[in-house]
Each structure stands twice: as structure tokens, then as C-alpha cells.
Specification:
Helix 2 packs antiparallel against helix 5 and helix 3 crosses helix 5. By secondary structure, the protein is mostly helical. It is built from five helices and no strands. It is elongated.
Length: 81
Amino acid sequence: MAVPQEFVAESADLQFENCTLAKALADRMRSSSEDLTRRWLDRIGARVRLDPNRVFPTDALLDHMPMLILGIADYIENPRK
């Protein structure tokens, strides 16, 4: 027996609204966005043969990484937004 698509969508929305793990993970990502950015950049630098200043040649590019992490946290917390 097939489940109506509307029911599946409503159930998924309810699961995301009540997901304490998603909220906790999103909150942790938000509070650690600067540290996550630094660690991510360090890991990239360890894997490529580039001067660390060449991985992201401008501060403007690097400044977008914490914003990207915040966006990912928002999506994890509520993918419907």
C-alpha cells in the first residue's frame, strides 16, 4: 500500500521540528564557526602544496567560510527554510 506524498512531507517536517540532535549540532556549529573555519583551512593547507595565503588568496573569500558554516547549521536545524 502506497503512502500519500503529503503524509510523507508532513511527517518529515514534524521530525525536523522535533529533532533535538539536529538543533544541538546546529547550535554547536554556530558557536564554533570560527574554529571550524580555522581547522578546515589548516587541513586543506596540510594536503596541498600551496602557501596557506594562496589557498584563499583574499580575506573576502576566507570571510565567507564562517557564513557558509552558519548556513549549513541553519539547514541542519531546519531544511525547509
